[in-house]
Amino acid sequence: MSQPTIAARLERKYIAMTADEETKRRLDAVTPETWTCVAVADLEQLGEWHEILLHRFLLLDLDEFEAFDPLDVIRILRQQYQINIPVFCFGGEEDIRDEMRLARADRFFDKDEMIERLPEFFRQYDWGG
Length: 129
Description:
- It comes from Acidihalobacter aeolianus.
- Helices cover 41% and strands 16% of the residues.
- The chain has helices spanning 6-10, 21-30, 49-52, 70-80, 94-102, 111-124; strands at residues 13-17, 36-40, 58-61, 87-90, 107-109.
- Strand 4, helix 5 and strand 5 (107-109) form a beta-alpha-beta unit.
């Protein structure tokens, strides 16, 4: 396992798990230049578990059952990898939100509300560097 550098640990990156192109565009529009949005549809695209830890938080689209299973994502993060980065979910019906709560997802928003709240999260997780 390669060791992440201090510089890599200080990078301001977040994960956006969505396959919706419009949502990706909206996220990019509010993402400051000092931050990087890493949009994926599969956790394996990020690399091993220690590479996921280099991201400050994860945005998880609960309407993307065609691209990935949100419950699998949270279970892999919390149970298999035992990673506790913040997971902010958006979209989805109440039943999937309830299941995600039980699987230890952190917060839930409507899609528009998630976009509106994102600058707040950038300020909150803007430590280092």
